């Protein structure tokens, strides 16, 4: 039986507006215990992504002004996967682009997130006796 992205992804996906501050983004990541936020417009269309790794890089570079809008450091070259795609497509995207989070889209709307954690958890469950 083939495994599909829909079977592995986390939902609902945690989103944030591009005008929100980095302080608000960090608080949202902590509150929701997630490693990435999808940046969406008013119609829930994907505009970018902000990850915990991005925060680390900003901190190392000394460029972490808490009131800066999310739109400034967010990545706009977001790799996505369709909800009905084979899960192997998401894994390949993560490996090819060295990323840990891939937003899941359906009809150009973000419907979930698949992460390395999701795959690890799925693998762990499959190994249970």
TrEMBL record:
SUPFAM superfamilies noted in UniProt: CBS-domain pair
Domain of life: Archaea
Location of the CBS domain: 9-68, 74-129
Keyword Cell membrane: no
Coiled coil: none
Keywords, in A-Z order: CBS domain
Family annotation (PROSITE patterns): CBS
PANTHER family, per database record: CBS DOMAIN-CONTAINING PROTEIN, CBS DOMAIN-CONTAINING PROTEIN CBSX3, MITOCHONDRIAL
Name of the protein described by the UniProt record: Cyclic nucleotide-binding/CBS domain-containing protein
Species per Swiss-Prot/TrEMBL record: Halolamina litorea
């Amino acid at each position: 039986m083939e495994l599909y992205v829909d079977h592995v992804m986390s939902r609902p996906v945690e989103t944030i507006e591009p005008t929100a501050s980095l302080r608000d983004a960090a608080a949202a990541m902590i509150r929701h215990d997630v490693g990435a936020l999808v940046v969406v417009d008013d119609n829930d269309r994907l505009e970018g992504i902000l990850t915990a790794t991005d925060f680390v890089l900003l901190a190392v570079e000394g460029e972490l002004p808490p009131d800066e809008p999310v739109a400034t450091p967010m990545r706009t070259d977001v790799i996505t996967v369709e909800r009905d795609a084979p899960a192997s497509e998401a894994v390949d995207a993560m490996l090819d682009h060295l990323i840990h989070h891939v937003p899941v889209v359906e009809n150009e709307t973000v419907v979930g997130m698949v992460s390395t954690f999701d795959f690890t958890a799925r693998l762990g469950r499959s190994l249970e006796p």
